[in-house]
Amino acid sequence: MRQHRRGLRRQHLRRQHRARPAHHPAAAAVVRGHGCRHPDRGRHRVNPITPIVEPPPLVFVVDDDVALAESYADTLSAYTFRTEVITRWHGLQDALMDVRPHAILLDQHLHGVDTVARLDQLRASTDAAILMVAANRDVSDRVLALERGADDFLVKPVSGRELVARTRAALRRQVQTIGGGTRCRINDQPPHLLHPDGRQVLLQPPEAVLLEALLGSPGRPVTSDVIAELLDAQAIGSTPGKAVARLQRKLQAAGMPWAVNGVARHGYVLVRVQE
């Protein structure tokens, strides 16, 4: 009789397990644990590679129109940027003494100060990406701003999507190093990564595409599928794995303070290493 009851109990449990939906916790544990029914086994896997997660980029929004500056700041904040609103030229100079922003969104006129004329002074005090914003459509002003150190020039009115896209594009050309607070820059012609101490890494098209994708996703892995799509979009005959291997070898050979790490089931991430 006892054996008969045990047999009925086993049949009941087997039917109950088969009837559980896929989202049931116990059923999910079996899938994750490759057959292990213990609810805590297989649920989490310890990743041997721990990326160094950088804080979101900081953008100084400098405009004497407070409402407009707050609008720009709100838009950038919605896309995970950190922002600080500044309304005067002297306020910008004071802030740069205490904080190193990644980018500066700078209006052309601040309470009578022509900021284009002071770009040389600003560039000497910061290596942040500088994006000029002006209602003036005069081509000569734009050319002068770019020649004096601005990275981009936006003409008002600036849509939120354009603001975010231009800011991201400017930041893709910069990456913060681990030591000394210095930054390196990606130059386009020919593509190469330039360290302030003179070291440089010449990049082939697959490596440049890969590095820009990694820099555009600080602290977050970029999947192999995304990298493959970027390579295909530019008709570059390479695979993500080959591009990663070549870029990794070049960074190591040049003694650059970064490495491309693989994150299981997530893709690749650019991390800092000790020089």
From TrEMBL:
A GO CC annotation recorded here is:
protein-DNA complex
The name on file for this protein is Response regulator
Which UniProt keywords are present, listed alphabetically? DNA-binding, Phosphoprotein, Transcription, Transcription regulation, Two-component regulatory system
> Origin, by domain of life?
Bacteria
According to the UniProt entry, its GO molecular function terms are: phosphorelay response regulator activity; transcription cis-regulatory region binding
Organism equals Rhodovarius crocodyli
Q: Where is this region: Disordered?
A: 1-49
**Coiled coil regions, renumbered to chain:** none
Q: Where is the composition biased (Low complexity)?
A: 24-33
Give the organism's phylogenetic lineage. Answer: Bacteria, Pseudomonadati, Pseudomonadota, Alphaproteobacteria, Acetobacterales
